[in-house]
Structures
1.
Amino acid sequence: MGPKMKVTAEFVFGASHRLPYYNGKCFNLHGHNYHLFVTVEGAVDAKSGMVVDFVRLKEIVGDKVLSRVAHGDLNTVLENPTAELFAVWVWNELKASLPGLAEVRIDETEDCTVVYRGE
């Protein structure tokens, strides 16, 4: 087993949402260009030299998350899709398929970020 480290991949996608319990502009349907960062932590495999294969990481995130939300409406997967609850949803969608899942980061805008590291 090699050294332990974190590996992160970034995914950029557009999606809409509305916050049904918010008293303000975000109550109305609107969209964001989200930046999703998924981090896996583990030991570097002695043979492959990798913690996780980036190609496989991208396939899993694409299948479990992006296929359901990119260019769509987050309200179809969450009743109240705040950035915080969306991060928890992403975590829950990925945890069974990504051993070593360490962090989900969502940049809803360029200056508003949520980080979730599991329970």
2.
Amino acid sequence: MLEKNYLNAYLSGEIHSDWRENIKQKVLSLKLPINFLSPVTNHSASDDCGVQILGEENKKFWHDYKGASINSIRTSNMIEKSSIVIVKFGEKYRQWNAAFDAGMAVTLGKSLITLHDESLDHALKEIDAASNAVCRTEEQVILTLKYVTS
């Protein structure tokens, strides 16, 4: 249940670490007025939702297409409900979907915060140029959220 009069923040991107939980716990401890929304972070559940709901596919393309299509319903609705979109880019995998989410956020006029290591600066230069804050650490994200809600 989303609290009224709270900002909604969508947590997009890297799913192989606990960054979302770290941010949520810190925001909760600071009692910041923020609700969090996020994608399904169980990789196989996210990838397989389409065939689990709509039926099996013989070709991987159609398997992925069904999952991506259903996930896009969830993602687009959550981004539309959000005031802020926070996108974490990690080293291990290329998060093309996260880049898409960042573009959608900018297109919809949402505030965008990116979170990534300096080693990704060049690859993400266009996304960073469109973002409102480029953070290097979870703590910088927390401080940004604290500032904008005070």
3.
Amino acid sequence: MSRLPTNLYLIYHAHVYFDQGSLDDASTLCKRAGKELGITVGRIHTRNVGPHPHWSCQLLFNSEEFDRVISWLDSNRHGLNILVHGVTGNNLQDHTDHAAWLGDSSKLNLEIFK
């Protein structure tokens, strides 16, 4: 069972995961998040990047925005899976101990942090 996000850190990343079939839905979600929530939206990656085992788009927000962003993402993700993690400067811990999920979890490629 996936651990749900809790507000424990100052800064967060949410990585929206998608594939070819859900690219349009993910693009729309990320663009809407930026516009409606006023958060920073990264590039739409149509290849695996970093530890992420799926195509992804990164959203950046802080602890003051956390409750509003998580609630909005959970209500609007329409089946997309989203990794949420604190940004502490320790990439391995951020993607393991500090990680939580909206939807189903995925096994990350943690070898890049070793």
